[in-house]
Design a protein that fits this description.
The protein is of the alpha+beta class. Helices cover 22% and strands 19% of the residues. A four-stranded antiparallel sheet has the order 1-2-7-4, with no helix packed on it. Strands 3-6-5 form a three-stranded antiparallel sheet, with no helix packed on it. Strand 5 and strand 6 form a beta hairpin. The longest helix is centred in the N-terminal third of the chain and has 22 residues. The protein is elongated, with a radius of gyration of 23 Å. The two termini are 16 Å apart. 24% of the residues are buried.
């Protein structure tokens, strides 16, 4: 189970300037766009940003989460949202009044992009042994996949810091980051930013997203949404499962 405690108000993963640069190249700096044109490009950027999150299957923006997590007896506890920016609190029970709170020295962010928290002592399997299952024929205890409980409660910040950076007054800023404090500069990968700008430019040229047109014997079929350069640039950031 995962809940969003605090989200970023910035959910645009490119700028109107990025899109104008793609559409008009070096002449962009000499152009004077109207307020209506800028607002329209902003709408396309927001639409393209939603497209990127849908293609990847997870939110990109910086948010604070509260998640209950199962463990499987190994060194890694796996969180659902990435990249991990900071862990605020960690308990060994979802009933916090009875839980033991773990200090930041008890675990480390082993792989922020993968969502791994590691602990030298490991994370005990959150399922007791079951007897009489098909796995053990009733002779020995075994653990049946899919029956794990979720005792570990983790409150953490994950996602990419938006293009405009992060204010230290933000609810998502913390001094509990891996380096002592959350960075304030943007961490959004350039590939994602460029993919969103390309998709917004595509929308500008084909705003209705029409895949094909026919006039008499002449037929033109456009590339399907999600294909091409923009989709290829997002490919390295997709997650399995």
């Amino acid at each position: 189970m995962i809940q969003v405690c605090s989200s970023s108000t910035d959910s645009e993963y490119a700028t109107t300037g990025d899109v104008m640069q793609l559409l008009f190249g070096a002449t962009t700096t000499a152009m004077v766009a109207t307020t209506g044109e800028i607002n329209y490009l902003g709408t396309l950027v927001r639409r393209a940003s939603v497209w990127a999150e849908m293609r990847l299957g997870y939110p990109l923006g910086l948010q604070t989460y509260s998640e209950s997590v199962p463990a499987y007896g190994g060194r890694h506890l796996v969180l659902a949202r990435t990249p991990i920016v900071s862990v605020l609190r960690l308990f060994d029970s979802t009933t916090t009044c009875e839980a033991t709170a773990y200090c930041s020295t008890d675990y480390v962010i082993d792989d922020a992009e993968a969502g791994f928290l590691s602990r030298n002592g490991g994370w005990a399997w959150s399922q007791g042994e079951q007897f009489g299952s098909d796995f053990s024929l009733g002779l020995t205890g075994s653990r049946v996949p899919g029956f794990e409980t979720r005792p570990w409660l983790v409150e953490y910040v994950a996602g990419y810091i938006p293009i405009g950076g992060l204010s230290t007054a933000s609810e998502n800023w913390s001094t509990a980051g891996p380096n002592g404090a959350t960075t304030t500069g943007t961490t959004l990968p350039e590939d994602i930013r460029q993919a969103v700008a390309i998709k917004a430019a595509e929308y500008q040229g084909n705003p209705m997203g029409i895949r094909s047109r026919r006039v008499g014997d002449l037929a033109v079929e456009y590339a399907s949404e999600g294909s091409g350069r923009a989709d290829a640039m997002l490919a390295p950031y997709r997650r399995l499962g």
